[in-house]
Amino acid sequence: MSGIVPLVEADTEELYGAKAVGLGDALRAGLPVPPGVALPGPLVDSIASGEPASTTALLEAVRDLPAPLAVRSSAVGEDSAGASFAGQHITVLNVPSAADVEGAVREVWWSANSDSAITYRKRLGVFARPSVGVVVQSLLQPDSAGVMFTRNPITGADERMIEASWGLGEAVVSGRVIPDSFRVDRSGEVLAARAGLKSFAIRSSPDGGTVDEDVAPELVESLCLSDVQLRALSDLAADCERVYGPERDIEWAFAGGQLYLLQCRALTTSAGAAAPASFKPPGELVESLERVPLLSGLAEADRDAVARLFTQRTFAPGETVTKEGADAAAFYLIESGTATVTVGGAFRRTLGAGDHFGEIALIDGRARTATVTADDELVCQGITLWDFQPLVQRSPTMAWTLLQTLAGMLRQAGETHTPPEGTT
C-alpha cells in the first residue's frame, strides 16, 4: 500500500510532515486550500530510488488533479516554531502533467538531502537522515500573492503584517522584489500601507516552470491589494489562529477573485525576527559596524537593528572558518584571537581583533574568494544571510542605502584594481 492520501486525510506528522498535516487540518476546518495529495516519507524515498511500484502509485494518485501542479516538501520537522527550513527545501512549480511529477518529487527529495539543508539541520542539532514527505497540489494562477504574519515579527505588535506582490508568491518569499507592505489590526482596519517596487511578476510558463514577466509600468509601485482583500486576509488570519493557535506565518494567494490558503506554520523565532526590545547590543559591536564598508552608510537605528541579529561563535585553533570556493552564508567580526587568510594556498594577511570578513556574503551568498583559518581560539560575532536578508527586505530605505554603498565600493575597486577589504 502506497500510503498516498488526499490532503484532507493527512493527519500523521511522522509520516507526512507538518506542512501536509497542517493543510489537512485546514481542509478539515473548511479553510480554502487548493486540492492535492500527501506522500509519506518512506514512499518518497522509494520514488527517489526509482522503485517502479512506487512511481506507478504516484502516477495513479495525481492523475486526476487539475494541472499544472505544484510539488512541495513536507519533511518531518519542517515548519516547526524553531526551524522553518525556508529556502532549504525546494518547491517545484508549474509541473505540466501527472507524468512529470516523479521528476519533481526527486528534486524535492534531493533538496532535503543537499549540503545546505544538512548544514542547517546540524546547526539546529538535528543530524539524522531526513524523512521527506511531499505535497502535490493544483497550482493556482494568482493575480497577487504573498505572506502574512498574525503578529508583527519585527515589533511584536498584536497586528497582522502582510507582504504582497503580483503573480506567484515566490517573488515575495525569495526576496526578489520589494513587496507591498501592510499593517492591519485585528478588526480588519488598515493601519499602514506602503507600496513596494514590483517590476516583474513570477508566472507559470506554458512549457513548465516559471518565468519573470514584466509588470506594466503603472503597476510597479501601485498597491496590489484592496481594502476588501486586506479585510479578507485579516479574516483568514483569525481562522488560522482558531484552527492552529496564535502567531502564525501564512502563505496565501488571490486567484479568480478567491482567497486561498497555501501554507500555515508557526511563526519562527529566528530568520530575521527582531531581538526583544529589551535587548541592547554591546556598544563596541555597534561601533565595529561603523567600520564595515558595506554597513557604514546605514542610519544609526538601522545599524543597531543589524547588531541585534549577531550571535557569538567560537572557532578552535586550526579550524576553517570560511573555505575558498564554498558557498558563503555568514559575515564575521573578530572579538579575539587571530586568523590567517589564504588565496589559492598562498598567504595573504593575518586578521585580528576588530577585523571583519565575509560581508558580501550577506548580499549574494556566492562562493568565498578566500580561506580563513583560526590560528588560535577565535571568537567572532556572526550574522547569517538568512537573518540579514529579511531585515533588509522589510526596509526599502536600508536596501537603497546598501545599494548606494555597493556602487561606491565597485567604483573604488575599479579605480584601485583590488577587491574591497572584507569581501572574502
Overview of this protein structure:
The protein is of the alpha+beta class and 424 residues long. It folds into three domains: 139 residues, ATP-grasp fold, A domain (Dna Ligase, domain 1); 130 residues, D-amino Acid Aminotransferase, Chain A, domain 1 (2-Layer Sandwich); 134 residues, Jelly Rolls (Sandwich). The chain has a six-stranded antiparallel sheet with strand order 9-8-7-6-12-13. A hairpin with a 2-residue loop joins strand 17 and strand 18. Helix 2 crosses helix 3 and helix 2 crosses helix 4. The longest helix has 21 residues. It is globular.
Summary, kept brief:
With 424 residues, the protein is α+β, with helices and mostly antiparallel strands.
Summed up, the domain count is 3
- Shape verdict: globular
Determine the N-to-C terminus distance. Answer: 52 Å
Give me the secondary-structure category. Answer: alpha+beta
Question: How would you sum up the major sheet?
Answer: 6 strands, antiparallel
CATH architectural group of the largest domain:
2-Layer Sandwich
Q: Strand order, biggest sheet? A: 9-8-7-6-12-13
Number of helices: 12
